[in-house]
């Protein structure tokens, strides 16, 4: 996809409902193209599904219709009349409005639907919509989104355990900030002082020129704790990736059931 043209829509902030509705339209347009554009009922169902949504919502049709109208006024969504003219359908125009690659669109969609994630789970989930073959490719795509300030991270992308999130929260919206990485937290200096003993020579006190010397305490223990924290973060990342794979399989199964009319 050519991403050389200038961005038309200044994507800066979206409300919680706008993010969920827009993310649903993008996701379903890729994963279930035969059902896309979506009806209002299908859009509501997609917004409120339990798989690959965080948090799970319970939006009513009237609320979703209002959000669709808001996104239409912003130029991100269009109402499509079917050939039969009986049911209005809805599609997004993110590809047309934004200079964005397919992997970046999939990554941004996952962040809109689930919020902050570690890189391993994000790659697994985004790969449902667009193949991302390696962590290096993921980081390349993320850098492009970071440069445009559409996402944020709590540390360098090469850091183990780093989390990313979209950066499209509405002004004043209450949301949980990204966690600070363990070794970036301020650690108070812990030292033990070895008091010098001043020997007496000829009835006069002789001071040790070195005085009290601060000696770092528990250096080995701190190092071991750091290694344990790194191991813990790695296990968390692997577990999250497995959970994302299970979620992707559930989504695929649900889509298959809908296609079969189950």
Please explain how this structure is put together.
InterPro entries: DUF480, WH-like_DNA-bd_sf, WH_DNA-bd_sf. Residues 225-259 form a coiled coil. This protein has 262 residues and is α+β, with helices and mostly antiparallel strands. The protein has a domain at 16-173 and 240-260: Arc Repressor Mutant, subunit A. The chain has eight helices and ten strands. The strands form four sheets. It has a three-stranded antiparallel beta sheet. Strand 8 (200-201) and strand 9 (204-205) form a beta hairpin. Helix 6 (119-126) packs parallel to helix 8 (219-260). The chain is globular. Residues 2-7 and 190-198 have low confidence and may be disordered.
Short description:
The chain has 262 residues and is of the alpha+beta class.
CATH class of the domain at 16-173 and 240-260: Mainly Alpha
Overall average pLDDT? 81
β-strand number: 10
Q: Give the CA-CA distance, first to last residue.
A: 36 Å
Radius of gyration: 26 Å
Largest sheet data = 3 strands, antiparallel
The general outline is globular
Judged by helices, strands and strand pairing, the structural class is alpha+beta
Low-pLDDT segments: 2-7, 190-198
The amount of beta strand, in percent, is 5-15%
The total of helices stands at 8
Query: What is the CATH-assigned architecture of the domain at 16-173 and 240-260?
Result: Orthogonal Bundle
Spatial strand arrangement across the major sheet: 1-3-2
The helix content is 40-55%
**If you consult CATH, what is the topology of the domain at 16-173 and 240-260?**
Arc Repressor Mutant, subunit A
CATH superfamily of the domain at 16-173 and 240-260: Winged helix-like DNA-binding domain superfamily/Winged helix DNA-binding domain
**Helix-strand string:** HEHHEEHHEHHEEEEEEH
